[in-house]
Amino acid sequence: MSADKLIQKLIEMKNPTIAGLDPLAEYLPASMIKSDNLHDKAQAILAFNKALIDVLCDIVGAVKPQSAYYELLGWEGIRVLHETIIYAQNKGMYVVVDGKRNDIGSTAEAYAKAYFETFGADGLTVNGYLGTDGIKPFISAEKMIFALVKTSNKSSGDLQDLKLENGITVYEQMGQLVNNWGSEFIGKCGYSNVGAVIGATYPEQLAEMREKLPNTFFLVPGYGAQGAGAKDIKGAFTKGLGAVINSSRAIMCAYKQQNLPAEKFAEAARIEAVRMRDEINSVI
Amino acid sequence: MSADKLIQKLIEMKNPTIAGLDPLAEYLPASMIKSDNLHDKAQAILAFNKALIDVLCDIVGAVKPQSAYYELLGWEGIRVLHETIIYAQNKGMYVVVDGKRNDIGSTAEAYAKAYFETFGADGLTVNGYLGTDGIKPFISAEKMIFALVKTSNKSSGDLQDLKLENGITVYEQMGQLVNNWGSEFIGKCGYSNVGAVIGATYPEQLAEMREKLPNTFFLVPGYGAQGAGAKDIKGAFTKGLGAVINSSRAIMCAYKQQNLPAEKFAEAARIEAVRMRDEINSVI
């Protein structure tokens, strides 16, 4: 099972974190960008990603490129997304593309093939609003998906926190669907290939869902730049397992926090990744 | 307002339909595909799209490329998506990219820039599961979005049909959010720049939402290959306006229905587009 592959990687690194690769050209040292055209920006971002992967791959087991930041640069960006996936995997990393894809079955099948075959990613985030037949094409023994359950943003409650007639919230209902979708794909580690996205910015709900979904691995955004800290993610874990915590901007732009010049982004990212690892390990 | 631009185009063509461009290489005449590599497949799909646009642009006002089918071909596919958008717009067509994008605010901003600036599309489909702050970055006077409300697939009820404590369903709640999001961007035609996706496969819900959301323009999939007919979409209209009906496979693969060789795909597509236009116009 793909979930086992991810979990073994996290155990091997003694580090339950995933580094978000959501690069905007403005994060990069100006010297890296030859010109303002899409090709040069995309090339600079590829070099930025590779430098980050180089300094992180022996301490962080997984990366999560956010598709939007590559789509922003048109096909040149998508080429760089693909090259980033291959580069990270060649360095031994598990790669989850954050695309939150969703559609009817026939189109979901095209998305699954795109991300798992054409791009060769290990995992993909998806959105389950369309229900079962829009999710099934993404599920297999070889790959992992993470479906949105309770997202990290402020407005996530607009729909997700509403109570249903049956007494549970929309996000709890989505959690139950996620649990059902994964039930035939549970690995040796006890977690299924259908994970859930639950934001660290909602620590109570995170702990609540950990209890309700014992076979569901969590992808937890919101740590770092979005404001959540180590105490907020504690509830996502049982016996040191159960979740992978994402940090994107806090790692990519660690040089800002450390008052270093942008040219030192890679060294600063490593320092932040170690700090984050140790902080999280101290509470789980 | 972008909604006015779309509606004026539909009125000018006397045709409330949008042609889905969801091309799989297997739909194309084998003679168009030089080899099985991604580049040759993508080039063949570009030629296929251009031929369809050429025969449709004087009778159909809008096209909807489905992003998944381009992502399937990696960056070569995205290049072709971009070229297809430009080609269709140069022929006077309104272009809605069907990407069902969704994310937290900062990332939604990157998606909005990607589709509305980098690719220059006129509209984009989005998924509102994340709530208001994930949708706001997509909203402007110049562009249009269509948020999923009640989707056309069989499992759409898994979440969307559930009743909330307040007595309305999840899809009705989403409809109210869509209405609120669009309230400051209502054009001269009376419809806002925040439209809703509602499947023709659920005619009752379509008519019900038409009544509840008088300022929301509908993008209606499900006609044709998914099984819905003209009578099913009648309820989406008020005084001949209110919705644009999508057909993808029934137009792209019309040659199959007409027992023609694949080489005749363009002529067959035009015949089907005219038939569909007349059929829909006869009931609205």
Structural category of chain A is: alpha/beta
How big is the Rg of chain A?
Answer: 18 Å
What is the C-level CATH assignment of chain A? Answer: Alpha Beta
In spatial order, strands of the major sheet of chain A run 1-2-3-4-5-6-7-8
Strand content of chain A: 5-15%
CATH fold-level topology of chain A: TIM Barrel
Low-confidence stretches of chain A: none
Number of helices of chain A: 13
Number of E-state strands of chain A: 8
Sum up the overall morphology of chain A in one term.
globular
Rounded mean pLDDT score of chain A:
97
The interface involving the most residues is between:
A-B, 62 and 61 residues
User: How many structural domains can be distinguished in the coordinates of chain A?
Assistant: 1
CATH superfamily of chain A: Aldolase class I
Described by strand count, sense and barrel closure, the largest sheet of chain A is: 8 strands, parallel, barrel
Known CATH architecture of chain A = Alpha-Beta Barrel
Helix content of chain A: 40-55%
H and E string of chain A: HEHEHHEHEHEHHEHEHEHHH
Ends apart, CA distance between termini of chain A: 24 Å
Please state the oligomeric state of the protein chains shown. Answer: homodimer
Task: Give a written overview of the molecule.
The structure is a homodimer of 284-residue chains. Chain A is α/β, with parallel strands linked by helices. Chain A has a single domain, classed as TIM Barrel (Alpha-Beta Barrel). Helix content of chain A is 45%, strand content 14%. Chain A is built from 13 helices and eight strands. Chain A has helices at residues 2-13, 38-56, 67-71, 74-90, 105-118, 132-135, 157-160, 170-182, 203-212, 230-233, 249-252, 254-257, 265-283, and strands spanning 17-21, 62-65, 94-101, 123-126, 144-150, 194-198, 218-220, 243-247. An eight-stranded parallel beta barrel of chain A has the order 1-2-3-4-5-6-7-8, surrounded by seven helices. At the A-B interface, helix 3, helix 4, strand 3, helix 5 and helix 6 of A face helix 3, helix 4, helix 5, helix 6 and helix 7 of B.
